[in-house]
Amino acid sequence: MKKVYVIKNRYVDSVTLMGVAVELTELPGVTGAESGMGTSQNVDLLTGLDYPVPAGVTKNDLMIALDAEGPEALEAAFAAAQERLASGGGHSRRVYRSVDELPVGRYDVLQISLPGEYAVQEARRAIDRGMDIFMFTADVTLEQERALKEYGRDHGRLVMGPDAGVGLLGGVALAAGSIVRPGPVGVIGASGSGSQEVACLIEQMGSGVTCILGTGGRDLKKEVGGVSMKADMKRLEKDEDTKLICLVSMLADREVMEEVLLEADQLTKPVVAVFLGADETLYQGHRVTGTYSLQEAAKACVRLVTGREPSIGWTEEEAAAIAREKAASLSREQKYFRGLYTGGTFAEETLMTFRAVAPEIALHTNRDNTKYAARLQTHKHSEGHTLLDMGDLDFTAEAPHTVFDPTQRVERLRQELADPEVALVAMDIILGPGVAPDPASCYVPLMRSRPDVIYVCAVCGGEGDPQGKDDIARMLREAGAVVADSNYESARLCAMICRQLGRRE
């Protein structure tokens, strides 16, 4: 039985709503739950899922859509949703409904998850109140983004986002960020999962970070001009606790990347940069330490701030031995790699690594604008060796992001394991206070159902994350997975295994 409850003139941010929806599906008798504001897109989504959306819903109304076994289960679930929302989404801290309600001078940072048309307006008002901005909101035009970032810059305020998925300020993780040990490295990233990975690897290698400043994924586009990354560098140049700055991004507009590096040249502090997919010519003539993987960037940071050479990952010989052993365990029928990734940067780094380690392996992907793989005909079905970015709009336009709700990836893993030709599955497991509270155990029964398949996982998380990084890794190993020290190590091993499989032909 399906029903849509409408609460008139009630706004709740998207992050809270995703958490509420996930919790409702765990209630007795509830088989499905969706929540969102009454935008035309969300109304169309619910209608497409056969929910009976009442007439007259507006974008200012909150919708709670429930699929339950009967009327009693529906009403109990809706009551639970109301209770959860009344508590501020389960948080003990006070929830304010507008910037005007905020005590002047009490808060330094405002996290915004409003619809785009309201987000920019509220962000400007917060900047006027002397606050930095972390904007989870994604539906903002490039023109609006640049204007807002320039407004923040001109008023001495940081604008992180729009579409900032990861942040860490004063030990507090924002959005999908991890809690990482304090230390001397300030991370600035136009890549959320990439910045998180670098920070967590820095901690793993014995150092720590002052902050993670997420710029949003479009900051280095020509239309935006790297306004936030340039402003962030100037802020960290003045920060006494930050001794080194690390820049993280996927490949972006060449002219903008050059402008960012020229800005870095003017700093007194050392700078490490990783622009995934860039060649050595990008860094030539600049004082930055240029790197080519997230792991290499983290190692460079630790090396420069500690004076020692950090150790991480397998040696070439160790990885080769594992690859030979794993490939030898497979049947002749098992041929193909399937990558199921939550982080877009992890997906791109894996594609890059395959190209470098095993260029003869032809990969397919749903990712746009990548030069390392062919485009899938449809993201719904894999073709040969396939890598899926499950954080892409293909998967998130009509469902919660996999980092918050693993349901889609569970179902896709089930689909892949039904294929007898699957040999190898790779996954990233992302931790943090704001993501799925149990991001790994849901995969264990499926992994155990196909012990003949090789599973390679990399866990991205900090020591302070509530899920327990060591516990997650142990659980995966007990299920038969190889757990790599980093996404790069996972990708390298997978490429080496695929190379071994290719030699059987």
Protein architecture, described:
- The protein has three domains: 2-86, Alpha-Beta Plaits (2-Layer Sandwich), CATH 3.30.70; 99-306, Rossmann fold; 316-502, 3-Layer(aba) Sandwich (Rossmann fold), CATH 3.40.50.261.
- α10 (316-328) crosses α16.
- It is built from 16 helices and 20 strands.
- The mean pLDDT is 93.
- The chain is globular, with a radius of gyration of 23 Å.
- The chain is α/β, with parallel strands linked by helices.
- It has a seven-stranded mixed beta sheet, with helices on both faces. It has a seven-stranded parallel beta sheet with strand order 16-15-17-14-18-19-20, with helices on both faces.
- The protein has helices at residues 14-24, 40-48, 71-86, 116-128, 142-154, 192-204, 227-238, 254-265, 294-306, 316-328, 344-357, 393-396, 407-417, 444-449, 469-478, 487-502; strands at 2-7, 30-37, 62-68, 109-112, 132-135, 159-160, 166-169, 172-175, 182-189, 209-214, 244-250, 271-276, 289-291, 336-341, 363-365, 374-375, 385-389, 422-430, 454-460, 482-484.
- Beta-strand proportion: 15-25%
Helix content: 25-40%
Radius of gyration: 23 Å
Main sheet attributes: strand count, strand direction, barrel closure: 7 strands, mixed
The CATH architecture classification of the largest domain is 3-Layer(aba) Sandwich
Give the CA-CA distance, first to last residue.
Answer: 52 Å
Give the topology, please.
Blueprint: E1 2-7, H1 14-24, E2 30-37, H2 40-48, E3 62-68, H3 71-86, E4 109-112, H4 116-128, E5 132-135, H5 142-154, E6 159-160, E7 166-169, E8 172-175, E9 182-189, H6 192-204, E10 209-214, H7 227-238, E11 244-250, H8 254-265, E12 271-276, E13 289-291, H9 294-306, H10 316-328, E14 336-341, H11 344-357, E15 363-365, E16 374-375, E17 385-389, H12 393-396, H13 407-417, E18 422-430, H14 444-449, E19 454-460, H15 469-478, E20 482-484, H16 487-502
